């Protein structure tokens, strides 16, 4: 298993829950999302983000797909 980069101090910018996704838009400009908000906005975020760090696999037994 790959070691996680996001931890309990990373909070969803929308609701404050633990973030499992970080989307980078420009250097220094990122948003953090919980699983709920990631699922809600994934289609749009993936089209505009420069990079997406998705650690939602950690919620599914920790096995990275």
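Sequence proposed for the structure above (65 residues):
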């Amino acid at each position: 298993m790959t070691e996680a980069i996001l931890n309990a101090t990373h909070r969803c910018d929308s609701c404050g829950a633990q973030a499992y996704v970080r989307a980078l838009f420009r250097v220094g400009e990122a948003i953090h999302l919980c699983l709920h908000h990631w699922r809600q906005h994934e289609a749009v975020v993936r089209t505009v983000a420069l990079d997406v760090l998705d650690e939602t696999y950690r919620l599914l037994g920790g096995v990275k797909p």
